[in-house]
Amino acid sequence: MAGYPVYPSKLEVEYCTVFDCEFLWFKTNELVDMAPEAHSETWIQVGTGFSYTTSNCDIGNWLKVKCIPKTSSKIGLPECAIASQVVEAGPGICPFEIRHNFTNKFVENDGFRVVTYNILADLYADSDYTRTVLHPYCPPYALAIDYRKQLILKELLGYKADIICLQEVDSKVFDADLKPIFSSYGFESEFSKKGGQVSEGMACIFNASKFQLVQSSSHIVAEELSSNPLVADLWVAVQKNENLSKRILERTTSCQLLVLESVFNAKRIVVANTHLYFHPDADHIRLLQSCVTLRLAQEMRNRQLDLGKEVSLLFCGDFNSCPGSGVFEMMTLQNIDCDNEAWSSKPDEAVIDLSLHNPIAMETACGTPPFTNYTSGFSGCLDYIFFEKSKFIVEQVVPLPSVEEVTQHCALPSIVFPSDHIALIADLKWV
């Protein structure tokens, strides 16, 4: 689509790397021969580099990319590919482009910009049930991943963030789209798949000019719950209820943990990224899942302290928990009593005689907006950027779209919103 980046998503090279290669982009409105190697006087060079951002001037034209593999001493045989269709008009100005006005440059080196965003996995969007029941108001073409991923990439690139935590990331989208395009802009990325047979998970993408990766790990929460001594008290409480034990062990929820070090001040950040269980009657399960993840993150933080490092905690994700929930209380108020109403959100799975304490005081960077998820059947605040409040101050929160914007096409997703969630963006500065 016009106004969106295009790039070679399926490319293999030998004896060099993709980013050693030279890329040339061409267009023509008179395609006679579809063979990529065919010569034509009508091909006009329009760009160079791994990706090319189209414009309205390209509408109705075919695109061709030419890749010349290189090393410092050798040049290989070039290969060409032609797009399977012409450039078409885009959907017009999207609300995320208005948000880009607040992120037109990167944050200074004494801080960083963080994004958390559930991008709606193709696994869940590409089904008859989604098209006819969950999101019947969204045109089928706008639910297709080939359409949505163009919007997602343009949106994310325009935020000029330093740390991006994504949920519901299809493994194929990570490998073919997110990782290569962000690599071309100087970012590194890590992917963590959920448990079970699903092909989606979480991704953390970070600016390699500002951070270097120290450590990365992925954990299936149910496996940690039943085996890790860090959460032995939780497991004792869970085992008291057979229904609860069975249900929570069947969950495929995972968490992603990274230790990033600033290349400017050597301060380290433990970044936790998760997507908690969604069911409305599962506040107790989400509270247990978030506690498992939090303890794993805190243990990683403690190890960094033992090494003499200055370290802080950042916890992002789709928590599927509204303000006032047990998860939110534990993160911000630090204590959950044994009689908290979250423990009995499903009476036959009630958690008995368990109190929780979060030793690290945390705040939510973007506050508690009216909604971060907006569909025809539900709207509410489910996503958060929690940060260690003694370590950071919030310099900027990028305003969220208005109700009028999200309901312009009934609800989310739509032709201008690629997900049923909205990205949260905040600028943090070390104290």
Automatic annotation (TrEMBL):
<dbReference type="InterPro" id="IPR050410">
    <property type="entry name" value="CCR4/nocturin_mRNA_transcr"/>
</dbReference>
<protein>
    <recommendedName>
        <fullName>2',5'-phosphodiesterase 12</fullName>
    </recommendedName>
</protein>
<dbReference type="InterPro" id="IPR005135">
    <property type="entry name" value="Endo/exonuclease/phosphatase"/>
</dbReference>
<dbReference type="InterPro" id="IPR036691">
    <property type="entry name" value="Endo/exonu/phosph_ase_sf"/>
</dbReference>
<dbReference type="InterPro" id="IPR048821">
    <property type="entry name" value="PDE12-like_N"/>
</dbReference>
<dbReference type="Pfam" id="PF03372">
    <property type="entry name" value="Exo_endo_phos"/>
</dbReference>
<feature type="domain" description="2',5'-phosphodiesterase 12-like N-terminal">
    <location>
        <begin position="1"/>
        <end position="87"/>
    </location>
</feature>
<feature type="domain" description="Endonuclease/exonuclease/phosphatase">
    <location>
        <begin position="115"/>
        <end position="421"/>
    </location>
</feature>
<dbReference type="Pfam" id="PF21171">
    <property type="entry name" value="PDE12-like_N"/>
</dbReference>
